[in-house]
Amino acid sequence: MLEKLSKHRNYLHTIPELAxxxxxxxxxxxxxxxxxxxxxxxxxxxTLCFIQGEENETIGYRAxxxxxxxxxxxxxxxxxxxxxxxxxxxxxxxxxxxxxxIEEVVKEIKNGKKLKxxxxxxxxxxxxxxxxxxxxxxxxxxxxxxxxxIYALHVYPEINKNxxxxxxxxxxxxxxxxxxxLQGKGCHGAQPHKGIDSILIGAKLVEAYQSLKSxxxxxNENFILTIGSFKGGEVRNVIPEYIDILGSIRLENIELIPFxxxxxxxxxxxxxxxxxVKIEMEFxxxxxxxxxxxxxxxxxxxYLGDYKVYEDxxxxxxxxFSFYLEDGTPGVLGLLGIKEEDNGYIYPLHNEKxxxxxxxxxxxxxxxxxxxxxxxxxx
Length: 379
Prior knowledge:
alpha/beta; 2 domains; 8-stranded mixed sheet; 9 helices; 16 strands; elongated
């Protein structure tokens, strides 16, 4: 199994592609499905492969396929061959797990085992900020497959190799994108009294936004507001007329969304009145939170009885796996440990030095197999 995993992961790691542009990646996936004589459909650069079972009820498995705009800084032999693009979130590992799992299922069927339920394998484009799952769930082929449950794994460098984290309830958060433009009045830096200082006022605005968590949101709520980009001006001695601010909000309780939007608008309005600026804000809720199904989590933990499983570790980020669950389909998004301090596999997701040993992926394939074997779906 390790040989198969390594073959897939090592090659895919060399060709990372950005969201919805995963053309070489999709070609590799489809070539491997053809070798197994499996049919698939294409949804952009996403690929859906279906194996018919004795029953029409379907179990789904998803792997995301896109990379990140990062310059890789590792010394491994299979590092990225694409400039400023990297599989820095482990999606190459997710694809390797799913491809190897499919090969295992096909082998078992060829050796005489039967498949009770049908299987849908989803190689999904654009998880990183593009919400590629949205296009899958609207697809007629996907909607026709009577999906009854769906699973996904995400490699996780904060827990050790051969460990899992599978949590009941909320496992990743709603995200909201903020795009803000503040217009002041440009002037020479030596004559600030003749302008309206967009830089100074923008800095105060960022500070005011942070009061939302400390003074307006109950302390027991899971809420994060981050400003990640603050841009304005070109030279040191000119106060720019405009600054652009990009931020994001993560929260668990979606009922807070209208209040959060209203409160930010009130802060903006107050700054406009107080400082004579103009503030435009785009407030865009995007990925919903992921809520793992309690019964499926209980089964998963039972199947993983010989592995250490943490039941209280969530993702503080967001995941478009949530779109598969919006219609009420139960699912599980689990975290697969890859941390090995002795070997230097300690770097976080979305880091230029992020890496892991391919053997860390073996438990992922085992987990997917056990879902079928422990319930006599593959018998």
